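Problem: given the chain below (275 residues), write out its structure.
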Amino acid sequence: VPQTQVDLETRNLLKQEYLVQQLENSLNLNPVIKQTLLASREATLANLEKVRLNLSDTEIRAPFSGQLSQVQLEPGQYVTARQKLLEIYGRQSMKADAHLPLFKLRQLLSPAQFQQFSTELNRTGSVSGLAKLLKIHVSFPGESADTRWPARLVALRENTQESTRTLILTVLLDKTKVVNASIPLLKGLFAEIEFEGPPQPQQILIPQRALHQGKVYLADAQNKLQIRSVQTGLEQGDLVAVMSGLKQGERILLTVPEPFLPGMALRVQENRPNP
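Solution.
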């Protein structure tokens, strides 16, 4: 065999061996490449999910259906965290703040009920007990005097006016129950809120003209003048409720003689109310 032929075949063998080595190296690298590609795929999927979340943040959905009141941004405007964008008011209900002096609330309740309210508020901050005691009605300007709708107490504002000892009570009006209203129920509308306390059968109503600086004048069984201090409650019209200091059936004087002295004899002309 010529030497040139031997050299040619030798070079071909070496070339084939080199190719075989390359193929073996590729086979050895395939698992590593596969793991790298899988890791890259997972990272790409994670980035895709992050992009989707970021995209969803650009769409703001209201948690309830309602009416826009204020929009404080423009199309294309960048916004920051906690920036106020708009105001939405629900179609189902509306809230109103009522200013009720503390002494007025005390007049609506019995001493035991007022103490129960105070204890619950101090311990838990809740007004659920008070909400069960009070009947609340709301009316609006322009409506007839007998047009009003029921509401319920939902909260007591913390920023009570200390100087006037006035409570700020938040009541909730169910707008679905407001029928035949002649005006739209919108934010900023003035309302009249009426609070009605539970019946107080232990209280006695007397004419206001029978009250003299926290005292009443009585005629005892012997028609002698007595002077007694009383604790008054709610006033309505020309009547005032007496919470303590009077008993059912006692006779009070509407006209006081001058001069008057405790124990002096009286000539009483009774004026009993019609049954």
